Amino acid sequence: MILTLFAVVVVLVLVAFVRYHFQDDSKSRSPGIGLEDLKALNIKHDVHSAFMTLVNDEGAGSWPPRATHDGFPPALRPYRQIYAAMAPFLATANPSLDDEYNRIRCQEFRSRMQALLTEKVDIQAARSTLEIVQSGNWDAFPRDAYNGFYSCIACLRHAYRWATNPVVKVAQDEKKLCFPFELDMPWSYLQRRFNITSPCGNVMSNAICNLDPQGQIVYPINEGMSDVVRSTELAWCRLFYDMESMAIPIYCAMIQAIIAFERGDKNLCLTYINTGFINLRRVMQFVYEKMNDPNIARAAWVRHVSGIHSWGLTLETDDPPVEYGGLSGSQALLFMAVDAFLGINRYHSDSELKMDVSGNMRDVAATFRRYSFRKQLSEKSEYDIAIENSLKRMVNQLRSFRAVHKVRAVRYLSAPAPERLPMTAALSVLPSQGEEKLAVESYKSIDGMLTKRLNETV
Ligand code: HEM
Ligand SMILES: *[C@@H]1O[C@H](CO)[C@@H](O)[C@H](O)[C@H]1NC(C)=O
């Protein structure tokens, strides 16, 4: 009896462990709003097919995307090994304030990586492998492994870019940097695959696809650092992953609401909007809770996690020169999709969007926008008024997210980091520099920008 109980407990624990990726789906799911329901939905509608294309193609059959890191084709395996070999040299607990020392440290890191790339990568073989996938043959390189490779190359590029973590002023002062051919060549294939133009990584490549199926980081930026630093790095990656995972019922509800509206079934439409609202509130509460000390430790995050995900270089080829930013929460599908569904102005311009947001994700957001029915609602119809009121509840959830995020963002960014100039991931180096008080000043422009966005959320 005791043994049986023990066995049951063991099985339950194992199931809980293996189900890491599904934790949020199973909890409070309303009928008809899971990914499986959406796959089974026998319907022809642009908004449904755009989402299913995202899931099947870039998502490798799931959402958030599946990414695996053990099954790269042989010619591409050295890249993962090189990351693993370089990781111990990347992080440091106490960055130096001496520019000359830092310059040498960065130089050494880069030459070491270049030497490994030259030695281990057979560039012709690597190129042929990528060429085969580009021609549409995925047999030897399944999409989940391709997503893992996307993360691998993006993380190698960010490691090469900053060459030490926390990032230091001498690296921030660089505005141009020549990358090893072994990193530029695969990145050009990845850019075409995801239809993006940026030389740097994004939330998908650096955070979401950087987790293995057990939810652990594959390409760490803080190897050998303290528990609080490493747990902050992990919590930050998982926040984006979990948020997208919890967003599935919202995407499904919005798709169903659009279809119900077009069929004139306003009652059903209202039901789905309410489901969307309830799930949006859940996700937002989850984000408020996680985007906070101690889950994401403020002091650790700003120095040891945020900087290396920025970019701050301009490309020779761009005319006029464009400075590339790096990661931003604004690249998460959830916000683009919900804004679009509610008919709220877009946050990114077309060209910004094309830099870092993949083609399939752009299509999903654009399709939600095309079928957004909020502007068609009439003030004379009781049903329409009820629908608008429900949509307004979703808007208000976004507003409170933006109000909370604005305060937290500035609080996080103004934590001290004397080895560098004030910066944000997406916006790079900011005007003033120095002590914490001055830093708060230099984040005024960001506060203004986020306030503007808050005011557009109506
Ligand atoms: C933890 C510290 C964080 C800081 C310091 C921060 C900072 C910023 C900054 C400076 C911007 C404006 C520049 C840009 O476009 O990227 C921004 C935008 C944005 N961030 Fe964050 N962010 C943080 C976390 C998050 C998280 C966890 C999420 C989502 C889960 C998120 C979602 C967004 C969104 C959606 C925008 C676009 C503006 C908007 O829609 O209001 N951020 N963030
Ligand atoms: C890439 O994106 C652009 C702009 O969004 C689009 O016009 C083009 O068709 C896309 N290319 C592919 C191959 O999907």
TrEMBL record:
GO terms for cellular component: cytoplasm. The keyword Iron applies. One of its GO terms (biological process) is 'de novo' NAD+ biosynthetic process from L-tryptophan. One of its GO terms (molecular function) is heme binding. Keywords: Iron, Metal-binding, Signal. The keyword Signal applies. Residues 1-20 form the signal peptide. PANTHER family: INDOLEAMINE 2,3-DIOXYGENASE. Belongs to the indoleamine 2,3-dioxygenase family. This is Indoleamine 2,3-dioxygenase. It comes from Xylaria hypoxylon. The lineage of its organism: Eukaryota, Fungi, Dikarya, Ascomycota, Pezizomycotina.
